[in-house]
Design brief:
- The structure is a single chain.
- The chain is an alpha+beta fold.
- It has helices spanning 9-12, 30-35, 85-101, 138-143, 154-167; strands at 44-45, 52-56, 64-70, 111-115, 127-131, 151-153.
- A hairpin with a 6-residue loop joins β1 and β2 (52-56).
- α3 (85-101) packs antiparallel against α5.
- The chain is globular, with a radius of gyration of 15 Å.
Length: 168
């Protein structure tokens, strides 16, 4: 899990909203640096979307635990609007593709979602892809708990964004 122990977590807190600098890059954000291959200790996994990167979580909560991250700096999931629904869907597709490339094909045993603010340790949008969900350990079941105050599934986020659009 991208917990508080993640390198640069405190440095990223200052870039909560917006998209970092003018070019969508925040040099203080560890995920921005990873996306630009400036963190040699983090290997990027093959990703067919040039606007997204994928890599293994430094504190895996499941045998397969990946993070899908936009290359351009974006705030957490609470800052998203209706126009970001296609991005969230693309992030999910990349997550599924990475699982399949790593020989995990039971897409019914996957948990994908985001930590809901203020429970985000890195202030750069990132999708957690965990599989098999049935093998989450005790703490991971709590940390990535569905219907909690601190974690929202990708599907729930999309529904929330669609509802906000309908209400406005």
């Amino acid at each position: 899990m991208a917990g508080p122990e993640a390198a640069g977590a405190t440095a990223a807190e200052g870039s909560e909203g917006g998209n970092g600098g003018r070019d969508g890059y925040d040099g203080k954000c560890v995920f921005c640096r990873i996306a630009r291959r400036e963190e040699p200790g983090t290997a990027l996994l093959p990703c067919e979307d040039e606007d997204l990167v994928c890599f293994r979580d430094i504190k895996p909560g499941a045998p397969h635990h990946y993070l899908v991250v936009p290359v351009k700096h974006m705030g957490n999931c609470k800052t998203l609007k209706t126009e970001h629904i296609p991005l969230v869907k693309r992030m999910m597709e990349v997550g599924k593709a990475v699982l399949q490339k790593n020989n995990f094909n039971d897409l019914n045993d996957v948990r994908m979602g985001f930590h809901w603010p203020p429970f985000c340790s890195i202030a750069h949008l990132h999708l957690h892809v965990l599989a098999p969900a049935s093998q989450l350990g005790f703490f991971s079941r709590l940390y990535y708990r569905i219907n909690s105050y601190w974690f929202i599934t990708a599907e729930q986020l999309i529904e929330r964004l669609q509802t906000e659009n309908a209400a406005s």
